[in-house]
Design goal:
Pfam family, one: GASA
Keywords: Gibberellin signaling pathway, Signal
Family: Belongs to the GASA family.
Order of helices and strands: HHHH
Largest sheet: none
Distance between the termini: 52 Å
Shape: elongated
Structural class: mainly alpha
Helix content: 55-70%
Radius of gyration: 18 Å
Protein name: Gibberellin-regulated family protein
Signal peptide: 1-25
Length: 89
């Protein structure tokens, strides 16, 4: 009985980690760039969402580093939200 419980727990952990890896893997050209850009963000989910939107609209241009450097991508830099502030992280 104990062996079956241990086996169930191990299989559950393996399946959970596999699903997590599949959900975080992004095959688009923006995925890796936005992962780097948002690596130090406090709200990574929000950062990744808007970074990917901006990246796709700006022909896959994402500024280097985790902050600043927006002059590298004028489209990314100039995109604004409805409040008039920068849309792109």
């Amino acid at each position: 009985m104990k062996f079956q419980v241990v086996q169930f727990i191990i299989i559950s952990l393996l399946l959970t980690s596999s699903l997590f890896m599949l959900s975080t893997a992004d095959s688009s050209p923006c995925g890796g760039k936005c992962n780097v850009r948002c690596s130090k963000a406090g709200r990574q989910d929000r950062c990744l969402k808007y970074c990917n939107i901006c990246c796709e609209k700006c022909n896959y241009c994402v500024p280097s580093g985790t902050y600043g450097n927006k002059d590298e991508c004028p489209c990314y830099r100039d995109m604004k939200n409805s409040k008039g502030t920068s849309k792109c992280p």
